[in-house]
Amino acid sequence: MSDLTASYATDTPHLPGMSDEIAIEIRDMNKWYGDFHVLRDIDLTVRRGERIVIAGPSGSGKSTLIRCINRLEEHQAGQIVVDGIELTSDIKNIDKVRSEVGMVFQHFNLFPHLTVLENCTLAPIWVRKVPKRQAEDTAMQYLEKVRIPEQANKYPGQLSGGQQQRVAIARSLCMEPKIMLFDEPTSALDPEMIKEVLDTMIELAETGMTMLCVTHEMGFAQAVADRVIFMDQGQIVEQNSPQEFFNNPKSDRTKLFLSQIL
Ligand code: ADP
Ligand code: MG
């Protein structure tokens, strides 16, 4: 084997059986916060274009799991491979993965001192080196997709919560991610604004985007999820199609959870 081939082989951490059809592969992953074992033996394979809803009680590790996928949190054991790139302490790989994975949080995390348009163009201009004019054109396209182009020159504080969250989604999309992670994107919203954000997410799902969504919106799960994953106490307890998950839950923990939220 030449040096080049040898380094290629070790730099390409495809897990056995991993193919181009796979967006995310998590194998035997464990994470601790200090002594606290927060994620236990997580195995999860996400195919390209798959829409996954992650449900489970508060404190079960849902946020930690999706934050591990773009290395906002570090795992200590097992493997996470995103779009063929293994997440290790290698900063080059972390940057590559982050440039392909968009994330939308419960609190919108917009920059308050920048306009909507500036929020959307900041990363494309400074991280992607996209020319300003082109970044603005792209941003306007995504602001139209989330149906708020007329808010482009306002500041986040002048917008409703639902509008701010749609800006946050547009801002993520401006980086042209391959995968979108959502962590309870509607939990901080007044009830009348939840639907407009869910509608935006449903439209995004219809474009074929690979999506992992932590949400308590079980109507959304039923409408768009290919698979629902139920977590409790740091483990994936059950996963199934929405149909089976809601109508035929298997574990007692899932049944208890569903009885509390439905
Ligand atoms: P969920 O999103 O399902 O509510 P989290 O992933 O936020 O759960 O949290 C899982 C558990 O880890 C909780 O018990 C929480 O208190 C704990 N936890 C979360 N973040 C930290 C942290 N940075 N340090 C220590 N413990 C944490
Ligand atoms: Mg959470």
From TrEMBL:
UniProt source species: Paracoccus isoporae
UniProt entry tagged with the keyword DNA damage: no
Name the UniProt record assigns to this protein: General L-amino acid transport system ATP-binding protein
Similarity comment: family membership: Belongs to the ABC transporter superfamily.
Superkingdom, taxonomy of origin: Bacteria
InterPro entries membership: AAA+_ATPase (IPR003593), ABC_ATPase_HisP-typ (IPR030679), ABC_transporter-like_ATP-bd (IPR003439), ABC_transporter-like_CS (IPR017871), MetN_ABC_transporter-like (IPR050086), P-loop_NTPase (IPR027417)
Domain ABC transporter span(s) in chain numbering: 24-258
Upper taxonomic lineage: Bacteria, Pseudomonadati, Pseudomonadota, Alphaproteobacteria, Rhodobacterales
Keyword Cell cycle: no
Example of a GO MF term: ABC-type amino acid transporter activity
SMART domains tied to this protein: AAA
